[in-house]
């Protein structure tokens, strides 16, 4: 692996930060969302109701533990840390005239702390959250108004942190807008019974693509050294059989994945995008100047999350769960406690497919294992997590060293335990560090390094020579 390959971890404010009512922060869409369990959708309330527990309010309390947590990341040897900024900490209502200075100061402290240890921050501007007030006032990303408001927020933080942050990611898993049954995290949208969901979905996608491009254009004016990435939820998919119809179904399954990255990398709606619009019979408005914005605001690198793979075909035997996307069961693969199929080779294939298609540097911005951990002797003996990560990193290395894929970094999800995005559960743990909270937020919040912590430390120390 190249000497300057970036090893680190990734997490998101709404699942980690907590401090929901501190430092002048406004309510975010996550603050009215309850936890659920495997296979069940999270319930969304209109307002906070006292008798319920909302996981984002405390999450795993990075807000009060950041010194300790960043020190733990540094101890593992992190060279980068992918994190997100909570929009409502900066603009509490999303359309405030002036930003919240206390919120800005909070992230100054985070970046200073990271830089103190030589950890490069990689910042996601939108990771499954937005100010709740924007949903109430504008109906979320149904409205074009969101483009300017989000660009205003992005300009504020890019201006403020231009000497501390070089890498920016605009929207987390932007394509999940097409996958989620209720795109609350993605766009602040809950569909009404009688509306045309397809058109709303394509319209919101268009606004986000324009917002992403506009942010990049504005960012480059602020600091030409900035590097911008997109972020795609990438599920490697296989056809169930070699029957041409199964292959065609596989082709169709990939259209919504390429829909977003084609625009973000190439700068226009390609034939793939148009084919998908047609197949879905989608209608949405495009303003005259949008095409120029999309053309100019293309990304410098392609980042993606990879957790599992799926099968597509006329007769998939059983359905399997995955990261938002579901598909057929693969008889050759084992699954996680949450039914996600474990497929390290799928990561190598994905890196190849993506690089062949776009030929720009890649970054693995999420990969990890959600599992039930037992705290014993103040640690967790998480061999299963080490196995998962070892095999995936091995495949990543092969893609780079044997297939010549240009990939410059890997951030494991998520170094410190956080709450799950899909279910809001605490017991679905990803971390190298165990956090003592349960599904109701009870516990000391104390941090305990798991065995995988020491394993990853070695991986970084040896630049993955020792896996
Ligand atoms: C990705 C998201 O979908 O997968 C993360 O970017 C999320 O926010 C991760 O946490 C794992 O999903 P889950 O549902 O297990 O938390």
Mean pLDDT rating = 96
Strand order of the largest sheet: 1-2-3-4-5-7-11-12
Number of helices: 15
Largest sheet: 8 strands, parallel, barrel
Q: Which structural category do the helix and sheet elements fall into?
A: alpha/beta
Q: Estimate the strand proportion.
A: 5-15%
Low-pLDDT stretches: none
Terminal residue distance: 13 Å
What is the total domain count?
1
Determine the fraction of residues in helical runs and give it as a percent range: 25-40%
Can you say what the CATH homologous superfamily is? Answer: Glycosidases
Number of DSSP strand runs:
14
> In the CATH hierarchy, what is the class?
Alpha Beta
Can you tell me the CATH architecture?
Answer: Alpha-Beta Barrel
CATH topology: TIM Barrel
Task: Return Rg in Å.
Answer: 21 Å
Query: Which series of helices and strands comes N to C?
Result: EHHHEHHEHHEHHEEHHHEEEEHEHEEEH
Layout: helices, strands, pairs:
Layout: E1 6-10, H1 13-16, H2 55-58, H3 62-76, E2 80-84, H4 87-90, H5 101-116, E3 120-126, H6 132-138, H7 145-160, E4 167-171, H8 184-187, H9 197-222, E5 227-233, E6 236-239, H10 244-266, H11 271-280, H12 290-296, E7 301-305, E8 309-312, E9 319-320, E10 327-328, H13 344-358, E11 362-366, H14 383-401, E12 407-413, E13 433-435, E14 447-449, H15 451-461
Parallel strand pairs: 1-2, 1-12, 2-3, 3-4, 4-5, 5-7, 6-8, 7-11, 11-12
Antiparallel strand pairs: 9-10, 13-14
The structure holds 6-O-phosphono-beta-D-glucopyranose (BG6).
Residues 12, 15, 128, 172-173, 233, 305, 323, 366, 370, 413, 420-422, 428 line the site of 6-O-phosphono-beta-D-glucopyranose.
